[in-house]
Design goal:
The complex is a heterodimer of chains A (65) and B (438).
Chain A lengths: L1 E4 L9 H5 L4 E3 L5 E3 L9 H10 L5 E4 L3
Antiparallel strand pairs in A: 1-4, 2-3
Chain B lengths: L28 H4 L3 H13 L4 E3 L15 E4 L2 H9 L4 E2 L11 H5 L11 H10 L4 H6 L1 H20 L5 E2 H6 L1 H11 L5 H12 L5 H4 L3 H28 L5 H7 L1 E2 L2 E2 L2 H32 L1 H9 L1 H16 L4 E6 L3 E3 L2 E3 L4 E5 H4 L35 H18 L4 E2 L4 E3 L6 E4 L1 E3 L3
Parallel strand pairs in B: 2-10
Antiparallel strand pairs in B: 1-2, 3-7, 4-14, 5-6, 7-10, 8-9, 11-14, 12-13
Helix pairs in contact in B: 7-9, 7-18, 9-14, 10-12, 10-14, 12-13, 12-14, 14-16, 14-18, 15-16, 16-18
Classes of the chains: A alpha+beta (65), B alpha+beta (438).
The complex binds protoporphyrin IX containing FE and iron/sulfur cluster.
The site of protoporphyrin IX containing FE has 29 residues of chain B, from helix 14 and helix 18.
Chain lengths: 65, 438
């Protein structure tokens, strides 16, 4: 799976960082950056939770292939 | 009546005269002068209606508008979360307080919390990096030091005063004041004055703080805001050319859509951060002292493993205190919430204190349970775009101060009933006498 952050929507709330600090990080620019764009399947649950929680719907998940 | 740019909605008008009111009283001064336990009885009745309910406007407001017919009370957990997440339907721009205050006052004080996208998105990003979980760990040493200093001060003041001191003035308010001002970059001396002025600015219902007549209150509110704008403006000017590593430098040098923030925008952001940074954490700490006294078995359980049990205890204490009682939204179109028809322009008031005791989502809500897990309280908001910027900071501070307090003064007790400020916005403890080492 591959994560995408829509930087026009992201407001830097950091819900995503709070859930998975090794995958998401809100930078000095106030928006989320991906430390790991393609986390393993074992992280699917937490990534899906981040997608669902993001208040601006900035996160999306894409299946690779 | 002031029109809000772009939306055509006004800040004060709401609803229509034909809609019948619910008979539970949420609109009198008398109701809001009782304590949170007393008020909860009314909220429990309203939650029992299983929908949103329509109420008359708050009585005797600073600004009266004949076209203000009332507000919807959002008292159920699920309705509050839904209203929060539907930020296109339920706007913050027309106003966020239950009461009508002068529009110039509000615009000088609320910044992003009273904005809607796209401006909200751009301005919130300017400060977001300073409040992330990772950043909280970087400033942990500062938080620990400010907590230690606050507790040490309390113990010294009590010792010099026959064993008693005001917990609010000598402890609870010092730690958040020093943390938020270290982050903002406000010097010692100015930070105490700014905190005091913001107490005045948020105590419009308390004659002791803000004055007796409407004229006096309005004068004091405007003077308080003017002080903070002047302070912020001076500091921003100083740092525009010589930035230091603090939030004021960040705001002074930031550009949004190729333009610097105006002095008024910086002042307003400063007021928001000062109020939010000081008051809520002070209230949580003050309410925690009472809760620890009211539930000795919870205190004993916590003391058995202070470090391990503090994180869940803090979550439960902020649910219990719910320092922010209400925020308002305004319907941007004719729509529906909780099965009822809402008309464009209607005000909705979300009651966080009620949702945090909604038995449908919080098990045994009237029990303080430090081991509660999960604890899905909505004290910091229902998960929307205005979700509390400082929630990680507040949590880290409360863990630090309660750990310090219960280590140095594990027997600390309140020695009188808390003195409350009547308010339908903040759950304010004005003074709280205590004996740190009874
Ligand atoms: C226990 C302490 C605190 C409580 C209970 C609290 C509660 C809240 C609530 C309920 C909201 C609105 C959420 C919504 O509309 O969905 C909010 C927003 C906000 N809080 Fe806090 N807060 C606390 C501490 C802090 C601290 C320490 C700061 C530090 C600066 C802070 C800064 C803010 C700001 C700037 C906003 C507006 C965010 C926006 O509009 O995007 N808060 N807070
Ligand atoms: S939760 Fe959403 S808005 Fe917040 S930082 Fe993450 S991606 Fe951005």
């Amino acid at each position: 799976m591959k994560i995408n952050v829509d930087l026009n929507r992201c407001t830097g709330h950091g819900f995503c960082e709070g859930l998975a600090e090794d995958i998401f990080e809100v930078g000095q620019d106030g928006v989320a950056h991906l430390l790991d764009e393609t986390p393993g399947e074992d992280r699917r649950d937490v990534v899906e939770e981040a997608v669902a929680m993001c208040p601006t719907k900035a996160l999306s998940l894409h299946e690779e292939g | 009546m002031t029109q809000m740019a772009g939306t055509g909605l006004t800040t004060t008008a709401s609803g229509n005269p034909d809609r019948p009111y619910d008979d539970v009283d949420l609109s009198t001064r008398a109701f809001w002068s009782t304590d949170m336990y007393e008020r909860e009885k009314s909220f429990a009745v309203l939650r029992g209606r299983d929908t949103i309910t329509w109420h008359p406007p708050f009585e005797d407001q600073l600004i009266e508008d004949p076209a203000d017919h009332g507000f919807w009370a959002v008292t159920k957990y699920d309705d509050l979360v839904e209203a929060t997440k539907r930020h296109d339907d339920f706007l913050s721009g027309p106003g966020i307080l239950m009461e009508n205050l002068p529009v110039e006052f509000v615009e000088s004080a609320q910044s992003i919390i009273g904005m809607d996208p796209p401006r909200h998105t751009k301005l919130r990003r300017l400060v977001a990096a300073a409040f992330t979980p990772k950043q909280m760990r970087r400033i942990d040493e500062m938080i620990q030091r400010n907590a230690r200093d606050a507790v040490t001060n309390l113990l010294e003041k009590a010792q010099a005063n026959g064993g008693q001191a005001d917990f609010v003035a000598e402890c609870a308010e010092l730690m958040p004041m020093n943390n938020i001002n270290d982050m903002l970059g406000v010097p010692d001396g100015d930070r105490q004055r700014a905190m005091h002025e913001m107490k005045v600015a948020t105590s419009w219902s308390d004659p002791e703080m803000a004055g007796d007549t409407k004229e006096e209150v309005l004068g004091n509110l405007f003077r308080a805001i003017a002080y903070c704008h002047e302070l912020a403006g001076g500091l921003a000017d100083e740092r525009r050319g010589n930035p230091t590593a603090d939030l004021i430098s960040g705001l002074a040098n930031a550009e949004v859509d190729g333009e610097r923030l105006t002095a008024h925008e910086i002042g307003s952001f400063f007021v928001l951060l000062t109020v939010a940074g000081n008051d809520t954490t002070r209230q949580s700490t003050a309410h925690a002292l009472q809760a620890l006294a009211d539930f000795p078995e919870q205190r004993a359980w916590l003391l058995e493993d202070l470090e391990g049990r503090m994180p869940s205890a803090v979550e439960e204490l902020i649910r219990w205190a719910t320092p922010i009682i209400t925020f308002r939204r305004t319907a941007s179109r004719d729509t529906e919430l909780g099965g009822r028809e809402v008309t464009r322009g209607d005000k909705l008031v979300m009651f966080y204190s009620s949702a945090n005791r909604d038995e449908r989502r919080i098990d045994r809500p009237h029990e303080l349970d430090f081991s509660r897990s999960p604890n899905p309280h909505i004290t910091f908001g229902g998960g929307g775009i205005h979700h509390c910027l400082g929630n990680q900071l507040a949590r880290a501070q409360l863990r630090a101060i309660l750990t310090e307090l219960l280590t140095q003064a594990p027997e600390i007790r309140p020695t009188a009933a808390p003195e409350l400020t009547p308010s339908n916005f903040f759950n304010i403890v004005k003074r709280q006498q205590c004996a740190p080492r009874p």
